[in-house]
Amino acid sequence: MDQIEAVFKAIDEQQDEFIELLRESVAIQSVSADPARRDDCIRMSSWARDQLRSLGVETSLWDLGNQKLPSGQELPLPPAVFGVFVYGMAPDFTREGGSIPVTLTIQNLTKRPVMLLPIGASDDMAHSQNEKINRDNFVKGMKVLAAYIFELAS
């Protein structure tokens, strides 16, 4: 079995653990379209940083500034989570979820190209209170990200 197939097999075997992590993450009601949930979005950034750190990834949170709402109110944007995990060098890519317009902000701040690896479906109701993701999409998304990182490391 080649290395990437071994990674895919490990993902399949640990699906329940990954789903439990997903369950823990969605318990943080980080609805990015709801200004009342902004603190939860910021908490989600910290949660993601802490999860990566628990795996030994050197991480940091990057301040993205503020968002001005149509009402004129300004709210802090959730910080971006960056990690060093490819042979000890900072990668030139960003794995980002949530509001897609923020990727331009990340690209401008880092002066690096940004690539999204979407794993959702058109009926996932992204950014709504009833947002969902199919288990199969979640598992396949992990495999896509693993294959991408594997290719970068090759």
From TrEMBL:
Molecular-function GO terms, alphabetical = metal ion binding; peptidase activity
Q: Say if the entry is tagged with keyword Signal.
A: no
Picking any one GO biological process from the record gives: proteolysis
Q: Does the keyword S-adenosyl-L-methionine apply?
A: no
InterPro entries, from UniProt? Answer: Cyt/Met_Dipeptidase
Q: Say which domain of life the source belongs to.
A: Eukaryota
UniProt xrefs under PANTHER family: BETA-ALA-HIS DIPEPTIDASE, PEPTIDASE M20 DIMERISATION DOMAIN-CONTAINING PROTEIN
Name this polypeptide is given: Peptidase M20 dimerisation domain-containing protein
